[in-house]
Amino acid sequence: MNSVNNKNEHVDVLVVGAGLSGIGSAYHLKTQLPDKSFCVLDGMESFGGTWLTHNYPGVRSDSDLFTFGYRFKPWTGAPIARGAEILNYMREVIDDNHLAQHIRYSHHVLGASWDSVNQLWSITAFKKDSKETVVITANFLWMCQGYYNHEKGYTPDWKGRDDYKGLLIHPQDWPKDLDYKDKKVVIIGSGATAATLAPNIAEDCAHVTLLQRSPTYFIPRDNHNPLTDQLRELGIDDSWIHEITRQQLLQEQAGFIQLSTQYPNEVKKGLIDGVAALLDDDFDVEKHFTPTYAPWRQRIAVVPEGDIFAGIRSGKVSVKTDQIECFNETGIALQSGEQLDADIIISATGFNLSVLGGIEFSVDGNIVDFSEKVGYRGMMFTDVPNMIWVMGYFRASWTLRVDLIGDFICRLLAHMDEKKVKQVTMTLRDEDADMELLPWIDTDEFNPSYMLRSLHLMPKRGSKVDWQHTQDYWSEKETLPKVNLNDDLFIYK
């Protein structure tokens, strides 16, 4: 039987999630608002979020760590980092800033309810270790749990899946004792996870087949930065190297995205030619590595040292672009009529989107349906008081927005203290009454499968800039610090 701790704890700010977003937000709270009490809750046994959940062979970032890392913590390794390196980086942030005392692990948040009379959130969490339910009250709720379900990845319900006699696994649930030596392996998927797994297990496998429904874009790149290397040779301080490299890469990324928007066909050709240069002349690049969509409609992963293409050239990895007809006892039957036998099938088919961690929220006893809310700049929601959601960028490094939102919320909380108010709620103004309400994200601009499957669950966006998550770091880094906190859309009490 589960017990309930009736002695409630109170903090000024409660952060949910101890991944990159949560640890970064905790840093900003501690350094910018040192007089605020806070705690961080996470359902897992340690910090890390994505980088703790995923432990498949070779797991790595698909963005460079000079922009994916925090602005305040110099990155001193190679641009693309392994999961263990990212965890170590986060550990240093926690240790250097004495954040461990504020973090509570194995706390699975069940619900959060807002009480307008007392102007407080009550957060109910289940402690996995003691089987105890605890309640913590907070003035402000800072949601940093990410955007997908950490407990279960997305695997399609393929016809005949139960007939397969081999091992079917999702990378998110990678078994620690998985033996793939001398095994025939099929990896289903075309994104960064599939492209990472294939070359990292191929040497030990009898053969690896990458099975994709349709191709995606990749950027093969040496895993070092010449400017960074030169600055290190000159003995420049790590903090300066981090900032200089960060600004260089951000400028390059801005130019690349602009070119992709203005000249999509030319950029597409450049990306495909870059891949073709790493493959044999007789490899069918048009079939296997020529996407049907324009660049940046989905994330483009950097492939360090072009390792997936080296695996294909070696013959250890092959690529099939086809549709699955059904699973059978020995593997997969393709619509083309070909049979792929496999000892192990890996379903690198993506995530299940999770809207605010799947937590049940209520305001004054009324359950919140976020699909009926309108998002303020993709981080706060109409009629939901004192709450922020850290949703990062898809076209740039996620963590860039962690820093921007950290600055914004610390400024907002300080502003509330100056006004001697305890509550802030976003509301549509009179001038917004006839504003067109649109899906959370423009699917003509960004349309990964995990987003399309669950877009109906997400909050709405408006046609005016205040009510959009623009995905444009380069404009938001200028506009967000200048937001007028006395605008009529901020209702203070």
Q: Which terms would index this structure?
A:
single chain, alpha/beta, ten-stranded mixed beta sheet, 26 strands, 28% helix
Could you explain how this protein is built, in words?
It is a single chain. The protein is of the alpha/beta class and 493 residues long. It contains 13 helices and 26 strands. Strands 1, 2, 3, 4, 5, 6, 7, 18, 19 and 22 form a ten-stranded mixed beta sheet that branches. Strands 8-17-9-10-13 form a five-stranded parallel beta sheet. The protein has a three-stranded antiparallel beta sheet with strand order 14-15-16, with no helix packed on it. Strand 20 (375-376) and strand 21 form a beta hairpin.
Low-confidence stretches: none
Query: How many β-strand runs?
Result: 26
Q: What is the helix fraction of residues, given as a range?
A: 25-40%
| Count of individual helical segments | 13
Overall 3D geometry?
A: globular
Percent strand: 15-25%
Largest sheet: 10 strands, mixed
**Termini Cα gap:** 41 Å
- Taking all Cα atoms into account, the compactness measure Rg is 24 Å
SSE class: alpha/beta
Q: State mean pLDDT (0 to 100 scale).
A: 95
Question: Which helices and strands, and how do they pair?
Answer:
Blueprint: E1 3-4, E2 9-16, H1 20-32, E3 38-41, H2 50-53, H3 65-68, H4 83-96, E4 103-104, E5 107-115, E6 120-127, E7 132-143, E8 167-169, E9 184-188, H5 192-201, E10 207-212, E11 218-221, H6 226-233, H7 238-262, H8 264-276, H9 285-288, E12 301-304, H10 307-314, E13 317-321, E14 324-328, E15 331-334, E16 339-341, E17 344-347, E18 360-363, E19 366-367, E20 375-376, E21 380-381, E22 387-389, H11 399-419, E23 424-426, E24 437-438, H12 449-454, E25 461-462, H13 473-479, E26 490-492
Parallel strand pairs: 1-7, 2-3, 2-7, 3-4, 5-18, 7-22, 8-17, 9-10, 9-17, 10-13, 11-12
Antiparallel strand pairs: 5-6, 6-7, 14-15, 15-16, 18-19, 20-21, 23-26, 24-25
